[in-house]
Amino acid sequence: MNEDYIKRINAILLYIDENLDSELSLETIAKIGFYSPFHLHRIFKAITNETLNAYITRKRIEKTASTLLHQKTVSITELSLQYGFNSNSSFTRTFKKFYGLSPSEFKKSKPKLSKISQVESKNGQENGLFEEYICNSINLINWIKMNAKVEIKEMPKLDLAYITHIGHIGLENAYAKLVQWAIPKGLLKEDSKMATIYYDSYKITEPDKVRRSACLILDEKTEIEGEIGLTTIEKGKCIVGHFEIGLDEFEKSWTGLFIWMNENGYKKADRNPFEIYHNNFNEHPEKIAIVDFYIPIE
Q1: How many domains does the structure of the chain reveal?
Q2: Which of 34, 122, 229, 271 has the highest CB neighbour count under 10 A?
Q3: Same domain (yes/no): 100, 188
Q4: Where in this chain does the record put each HTH araC/xylS-type domain (predicted)?
């Protein structure tokens, strides 16, 4: 795929992220990417494997799902209107297509550590899923206590060069391209740090649609080209979990850190979580990653 096409679609993806509660007309979005409306449809689907309308609808539904998970007092009617649905009934129908539950049912459900619901066993008693959820939560809190150093930090603004990747596998290829671009420019130094920004959550987004950015933290102004983009992590307060873990322990570390956030009364800010790496795990004799997880908070 033409690198210029990818660069322009990246600008569109960021614009959509920041304007999910605004009108996202075809004409406006086409102007952001410097496409004609006709060509935008074709290029967008070729890069994201979704039509523009399907992508916007999915992102809006996922945004409402995230809000329902973390803000139990939110009004479903207000939420549906905020994100562009003409009526509560149309919002409910669309939401149910994604999650198999109405927004009100989803709101009452437990966060997906495993899908918690009122399932009955053969003898008519609850099958212990709630107890399993509590047990898993306790186990993950204990995992965090034993394997992480957790702090609240005021983080400075970070400038990054990045390549976008969509899907659960293949992020290492994006990092390889980024490194190949950075080395001849003298941007990859001994103390340089790589990072990953998460635009989606595995709790509410299908793995093959999860969008992440492979990033290099910059300490100087840099000219970019092709599919390389520039982005910023704005300064702000974060929960920071420092880990030394294997690759198979990333998921439970993230889940445990979010549980720690809830248990300690913090509220996630409307900014994206990210990771910053302090080593190349491939060079570690035990394939251990030394990494900081960041959850922006209010």
Answers
A1: 2
A2: 229
A3: no
A4: 10-109
Cβ burial of 242 (10 Å; 0-12, 13-18, 19+) is middle
pTM: 0.85
How many of the other CB atoms lie within 10 Å of CB of 258? 24
Within 10 A of 197 (CB to CB), how many other CB atoms are there?
21
CATH of the domain at 185: 3.20.80.10
In contact, 33 and 49? CB cutoff 8 Å: no
My answer on whether 96 and 187 are in the same domain is: no
Element (H, E) at 268: none
Amino acid at 71: Q
- Is 130 exposed, middle or buried, given 0-12, 13-18 or 19+ CB atoms closer than 10 A? middle
What are 229's strand-pairing partners? 162
CATH code where residue 56 lies: 1.10.10.60
